[in-house]
Amino acid sequence: MVGVSVAWHLVRRGHAVTLVDRREPGRETSFGNAGIIQREAVRPYPFPRDLGTLMRVLPNREVDIRYRPAGMLRAAWPLLQYWHNSAPRRYRDIVPQYASLIGLCLEAHAPMIEAAGAEDLVQREGWLEVYRSEAALADRLEEARDSEARFGVRHRALDATELADLEPSLAENLAGAIHWLDPWTVADPGGLVQAYARAFEAEGGRIVQAEVRGLEASSRGWRVTTEAGDETGDDLVMALGPWSRDWLSTLGISVPLFVKRGYHMHYGSVGRARLNHWVMDAEVGYLLAPMRAGIRLTTGAELERLEAPPHLRQLAAAEGKARELYPLGERLDPEPWKGARPCTPDMKPVIGPVPGQAGLWCAFGHGHQGFTLGPATGRLLAQMMEGEKPEIDMEPFRVDRF
Q1: β-pairing, 127-131 with 279-281?
Q2: Are 28 and 177 contacting, i.e. CB atoms less than 8 angstroms apart?
Q3: In degrees rounded to 5, what are phi and psi of residue 263?
Q4: Are strands 221-226 and 229-233 parallel, antiparallel or unpaired?
Q5: pTM exceeds 0.85 for this model
Q6: Across the chain, what does the average pLDDT equal?
Q7: Which residues contact 119 (CB under 8 A, 6 or more apart)?
Q8: Residue 361: which residues within 8 A CB-CB, separation 6 or more?
Q9: Looking at domain 1-46+86-121+185-256+347-402, what is its CATH homologous superfamily?
């Protein structure tokens, strides 16, 4: 999503743009997410610091967070920084910076959806954050009211009866929900990225599907060596998600990127059960989404090495809890999907130029919100590349802040 969005904005401004991807667009992390353009997500996910949450997570049996010792060791330094930046005072400073970017997401997606002819993939009915306990719902509603007052995020509080009216197939023992009214949902996230990529090509953009073998500064700016040959250009945008760290390191640039892996599986529904909205089981930590491919169950975060084999117990635990909430049918996919979210220690993406490397630009590290923030990132980066003043302060997202 991020790379395609950057490419689309640049080609619309008259640049000659080549997009290089080892797979067709929309087949990596953008394919497997929950499919929500999350206007309400003005608060990034902090590292848990309270003793209760840490003790809950420590046995490593939860749905929302799992970890592997090897993965924790590999990312020890960025995780320590993540914990440090999640302290209340630091986190309070990060939230408005992050919210300034989230606030652009809908207006940035809208023209791309129109240009791509992708209206049939998008619904504008918000999504539901469901709670099993009154106490947890009350705490979250207090935060929701603060987000509405400070950042213009609209919501509606639902009691158990109102929730049942909207979603009669859910379990009956629920306390209620928050209906986030602003976000848009997408029935095929990978399909939306592909539609954006086709719109990019229709504007004259070029897509090369090939594995990158190397990159270096050249007399013409930058040279990217692929298995299909060399590509050169005045500017190079690094939008490689979780792989960005390794490629930047070949240029002597260190960015403390780490990954939160996630899984999904599609299911049918039992009998006449129907899911009308995207539904998050908030106190457990998974989400159910009624997509074209079936009911998609997405898991929380797994702290593990990027290329380590999949560990499927987290998905199995989520499935067990989901069957308590909604009558899921049989699995529809031959095997679970696995992806990796590129995360930074201060929870903010990296967007902008690399100091000392003329023509090299970054657009990665969006964590849980690459699907949401891709178009806004593309718009802002294009403004920066053309020497315009970006519409928000980009200082919090610079690459050398680490």
Answers
A1: parallel
A2: no
A3: -130, 155
A4: antiparallel
A5: yes
A6: 97
A7: 113
A8: 235, 236, 237, 238, 352, 353, 354, 381, 384, 385
A9: FAD/NAD(P)-binding domain (3.50.50.60)
